[in-house]
Amino acid sequence: MSLECQINFRLDQWLVDPLKGSVSHQNGKSTHLEPKVMEVLVCLARHANQLVTRSDLLDAVWDGNEASDELLTRAVSEIRRSMNLQNGSPCHIQTVPKRGYCLIAEVSYQADEVENHSARSERQPSETRITIPAVFALGGVAIVLIFLLIDSITFQTSKSVASDERSQTLVDEMGNQQIASPRPTAITKTEGFEYQPALSPDGSFVAFVSRAVTHPMAQTELVVQQVRGGTPVQLTNTDEHEFSPTWSADGTQIAFIRADKSQVEHVYDIVTIPALGGVESNLVYAGVNAVGLDWSPDGAILAFGSRRTLVEPFRISLFSFHDGEIIDFTPTNSPGHEWRPRFSPDGMSIAFLRRTLTGNQICQRRLYAESHKCITPDDEGWSIWDFDWTPDGQSLVIAIGARSGGRWLAQMPADGGDVVPLSFGEQAKYIDIAMASNRLAYSSEFR
Question: Which of 171, 262, 350, 377 keeps 20 to 30 A from 290, CA to CA?
C-alpha cells in the first residue's frame, strides 16, 4: 500500500482515514467507503485542484488490470453521495467531460509521523537541500490566527556567527540572509479563519481574509486593521467569496479576487477598493478560477494565476492598467499549474509556484525574458504553500510543509540554494513582507 493510502487527511469538514475506510464529518456523521472507492478518493486528494485523467485513475486504483469506466464513474458517484461533494460546494469533485476528474479542495494530511520511504533516497541529488524540523499533529477545532513581527525584522548577511549568537540569529555558512531575533505577536485572536495577510507598503496596516468558524461553508470577506490595534474595518459584505488581497504601491488601494460560484461555470473577477473602504471598481474578468494576486511596485501591473476553462491548467497572467489588456506571462504548454505570483522588490522579476503531479516548485522569470528557471526541486516529500521576497531581493521566505501535515517558515537564496528553517512560524501557511518597513505577517492554523 502506498504511503498516501496510509495517512489520514482532511477535506474541508471531513476527516478521511484510508486504512479504516472511513470518512467522518465534524458534526459527528461517519460513513464507510469500499476499498477501491477510498483509493479513488485518495488519488484525487493527492492531486487536489488538478485534472486527473480517467486512464490515470484506472491505472492507479486497479493497478493496470482491466477495469471499465463504469467502475470509476460509480466510485466517484459514491464519494459525492457519501460526502456531499457536489458542484456548488466549496469542496467538490468536478467532472471534466471526456477527460477525468478534479477535486477542488484544500487537503491537509494528519499523520503523527511519516517515515522517509525509499523513493526519497532514490531521487537524483538536487542543488537545493531542505532541512525539515520535527512535525507534530494537532487535533480539534481549527483556529487560524495572523501573527506579525511588530518590531521591524532585520535581514542581514554574515559569513559566520559566534556560537552564543546562534540561538538568536539564523545565518548559514554561505552568507545567505536570515531573520534575526524575531518576536511574533498575534494580531487576530478570534476563533475563526483569518488568513492571507497582506501588509500595507509601510507595514502599518494589514488586510486579510476572514471567515467565521461557525460557518465553514460561508463566504469569505476582506478586513483591514492597524497592526498595533484599533477596530478592524470590514471592506466587503457580499454573498460571494473575496480573497488574495494586495496593496497598491502608494497604500491607497487594495486589489482582490472575487469569486461568484452561483453559476455552473464560476466567475472570478479582479476588483479594487479604497484601503479603508469605499466604492469598488471591477477591473477585469480573470477566468473560471484564479489563485494569487500581486501588484507591481510601480503600480502598473497586476499579476495573477488563473485559467480560462476548466480543462486548462493555471497560468500566470498580467493585467496592464495602461491599456486594460491581459497577456499570458507563462506559456500555455508549461507542465503543471502556475499560480501565486510575487513581484521582486525592483519589479523586474516575478516568482511563482508551479504545481505538478509530484510536488510544488518555486520558479522565477525576468519580466521581459523569454524563459524562466525553477529554484526548488520538484520533490514529493514537501510542499510550498506561500512565499515572499525579502526587501533587498536577495532571499525568499517560504511557508513550507511536509506531507504529514506540519508547516513552518524557512528562508533560501533567491537564486536557489539551501532551505533553512526559521525559529518561528509554527503551522504557517500564508505570509507577506512589507518592503518599506521589514515587517513580516503570517497566518497559522491550529487545531
Answer: 377
Q: What is the pLDDT of residue 258?
A: 92
Instruction: Report pLDDT digits (tens) over 213-234.
Output: 555 456 788 999 888 776 788 8
pTM above 0.70, yes or no: no
Q: Which residues pair with residue 440 across a beta bridge?
A: 433
Average pLDDT over every residue of 4-29:
80
Residue type (1 letter), 375: I
Q: Are 390 and 397 in contact (CB under 8 A)?
A: yes
Whole-angstrom Cα Rg for the chain? 21
The two beta strands, 360-366 and 192-199, are unpaired
